[in-house]
């Protein structure tokens, strides 16, 4: 499972003492090759954490031999010291494992605006390196958790090759990307440009379409590493499909574990003039706090869906809009439709279908409800 | 006070039985002239309630002789029937008072997607007409409340003339405009074009800059009526200033009474390249759920401010950003600044100052914190 499901990778997850709780907080993933190809996608937030700035440069070379990830501190908004700390972490990994620091990606997650305890992190790198194992993927996935209630892994099998991965993220999930760290690995023999293409296609349709709370992180990082250890080069489409499957699986796990959520909301926009319109409308619905509260209260308040659609620039006529909640078309032609009492909202998954009646494009966005637990968790996080 | 502070106006507020609670739910404001000049600003939501579509047309003529407002139902997303109901309401007011229906504005607030009980509303118009009084402004303000905990009125005095007003709105406050019904009156002798200009300038800087929960209503209506009864035509600047004062006063009352809020957050963006940048950044901060939760928890979590700024397209360099919370500059040059423990957040008002260090433009946006009470109130509203 996880990042060691594919051959050619070792991983470890240990407690370095970065978290005051003593829980695991440092993960290491090493690509033993023979290929060291890699691609990455990073947050589109313009305020980027030091490890994001570093890893963007590392990935540009198309080769990554190791990834070091820590929870317990985001190393974001930490100034020049933060960047030096990231650099020192990569150097420490490189020195310990005999690698080139320019091929060591770094990822961090936790509170913004706090420098990392390097006196704990650097020795932790040595401990993690000593613990590296071809079965260490699970422990690595555990070590990157922050407020996650469970660790998240996924795998897809090809003919003689595998794509595996791990993710962390529980809140602050929004397009571009979520507050997530994701490492995907494959033993397929795929060159960096194809990895990049497959990863961008997959994230566009998966991680970029989960929107837990509308907030965009400073640290989001998704990496895909290929070892080539299976000595198989799959058809591109087949490979891309496996990458998308793993991303989709992990994205759903992120939504399912979102902070304080009691409902997973699947928003499907249909009848859009084009895909951009469908995504814009889906995100607007996903971010409507009033609707998210209503869903929490199991109230099929379709008026709030229309109100959210009305704030977008998508092509539609208000009196042609149709909305279904759990397949009951409660709004037809912009007005009252089927009886809202027919909507059964007892289950965790709630499906909203918004028909713009303006074309044939569609998109699916996943979101969560807004709950008192979300408020509690996020009003006390740093205290 | 309220809409009858200015001479030439009568008003009433009565219980027509639209609300099941039996609370007041119908207000009437009549302009007895000699002038009947009027201007209006309406929601920019593309899904507009029937009364908005109607009143937009009424106001285009520049003359309004009466405004009828109901709480207990928004008459939004109610199809052709909803528009007929609005039309019938205006006709009923016109017939009862001997006016032209084309000069009767209509405003509604309450649940979306429910048709109004016209069998109660139309007789209510007769009751309200019989109750009209030059001292009825307060009762009118009470009759337009929905989840408001208090009714909201304001007044500004010129030299021999007055601007007064009433507002309702407690949630769904967002730019363009808030979920608000506002009626302003003046006895100054001002023609419709100047009313329009003064009202647009005032709303741009007041109602358009309160953002309680990021949600935009289908029903927002702000009307300004001039009776000319004071027989004074003030200087334009002086008049516009009085209108802005009243709007500012009412806007602050809306934020102060926002659903479930425990904090009013004043977000001032300074050092912006232009005012548009300042407003964009202010709104992004105002809508960040994670920050709103942190403020609720009295946690000066400036990382979430930077994270919100980073999602905008405003001109700034991440490593030049400065952020103060209650005047303590907790973030300097995009990194850790003064000790966050110096920030005292015990009071209801919290001031966030975001310095983009990119110019000299600024803007102020008012927002609220996000609380469990907001979730409770909005998850149960229609049930």
From TrEMBL, chains A, B:
Pfam families xrefs: ArgJ
CDD domains xrefs: OAT
Amino acids binding substrate: 146, 168, 179, 259, 378, 383
GO function terms (MF aspect): L-glutamate N-acetyltransferase activity, acting on acetyl-L-ornithine as donor
UniProt entry keywords in alphabetical sequence: Acyltransferase, Amino-acid biosynthesis, Arginine biosynthesis, Autocatalytic cleavage, Cytoplasm, Multifunctional enzyme, Transferase
Catalytic residues, chain numbering: 179 (nucleophile)
Residue(s) at site: Cleavage: 178-179
Enzyme Commission numbers on file: 2.3.1.35, 2.3.1.1
Pathway(s) served: Amino-acid biosynthesis; L-arginine biosynthesis; N(2)-acetyl-L-ornithine from L-glutamate: step 1/4; Amino-acid biosynthesis; L-arginine biosynthesis; L-ornithine and N-acetyl-L-glutamate from L-glutamate and N(2)-acetyl-L-ornithine (cyclic): step 1/1
Subunit and interaction comment: Heterotetramer of two alpha and two beta chains.
Family the entry assigns: Belongs to the ArgJ family.
Record-linked PANTHER family: ARGININE BIOSYNTHESIS BIFUNCTIONAL PROTEIN ARGJ, ARGININE BIOSYNTHESIS BIFUNCTIONAL PROTEIN ARGJ, MITOCHONDRIAL
Function: Catalyzes two activities which are involved in the cyclic version of arginine biosynthesis: the synthesis of N-acetylglutamate from glutamate and acetyl-CoA as the acetyl donor, and of ornithine by transacetylation between N(2)-acetylornithine and glutamate.
UniProt-recorded name of the protein: Arginine biosynthesis bifunctional protein ArgJ
Gene: argJ
């Amino acid at each position: 499972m996880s990042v060691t499901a594919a051959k050619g990778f070792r991983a470890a997850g240990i407690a370095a003492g970065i978290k005051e709780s003593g829980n695991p907080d440092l993960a290491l993933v090493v690509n033993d090759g023979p290929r060291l190809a890699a691609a990455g996608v990073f947050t589109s937030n313009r305020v980027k954490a030091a490890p994001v700035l570093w890893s963007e440069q590392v990935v540009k070379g198309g080769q990554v031999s190791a990834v070091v990830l820590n929870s317990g501190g985001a190393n974001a908004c930490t100034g020049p010291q933060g960047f030096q700390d990231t650099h020192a972490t990569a150097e420490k990994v490189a020195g310990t494992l005999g690698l080139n620091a320019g091929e060591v990606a770094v990822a961090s997650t936790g509170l913004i605006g706090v420098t990392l305890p390097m006196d704990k992190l650097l020795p932790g790198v040595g401990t993690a390196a000593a613990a590296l194992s071809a079965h260490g993927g699970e422990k690595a996935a555990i070590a990157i958790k922050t407020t996650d209630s469970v660790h998240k892994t996924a795998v897809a099998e090809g003919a003689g090759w595998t794509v595996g991965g791990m993710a962390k993220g529980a809140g602050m999930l929004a397009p571009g990307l979520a507050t997530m760290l994701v490492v995907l690995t494959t033993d397929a023999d795929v060159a960096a440009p194809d990895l990049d293409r497959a990863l961008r296609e997959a994230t566009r349709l998966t991680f970029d379409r989960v929107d837990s709370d509308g907030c965009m992180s400073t640290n989001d990082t998704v990496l895909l590493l290929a070892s080539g250890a299976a000595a198989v080069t799959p058809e591109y489409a087949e490979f891309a499909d496996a990458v998308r499957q793993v991303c989709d699986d992990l994205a759903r796990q992120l939504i399912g574990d979102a902070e304080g959520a009691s409902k997973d909301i699947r928003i499907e926009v249909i009848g859009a003039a084009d895909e951009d319109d469908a995504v814009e409308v889906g995100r607007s619905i996903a971010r409507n706090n009033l609707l998210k509260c209503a869903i929490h209260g199991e109230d099929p308040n379709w008026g709030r869906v229309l109100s959210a659609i009305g704030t977008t620039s998508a092509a539609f006529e208000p009196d042609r809009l149709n909305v279904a909640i759990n397949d009951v078309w409660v709004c037809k032609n912009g007005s009252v439709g089927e009886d809202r009492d027919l909507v059964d909202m007892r289950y965790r998954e709630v499906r909203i279908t918004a028909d713009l009646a303006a074309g044939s494009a569609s998109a699916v966005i996943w979101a969560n409800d807004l709950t008192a637990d979300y408020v509690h968790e996020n009003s006390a996080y740093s205290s």
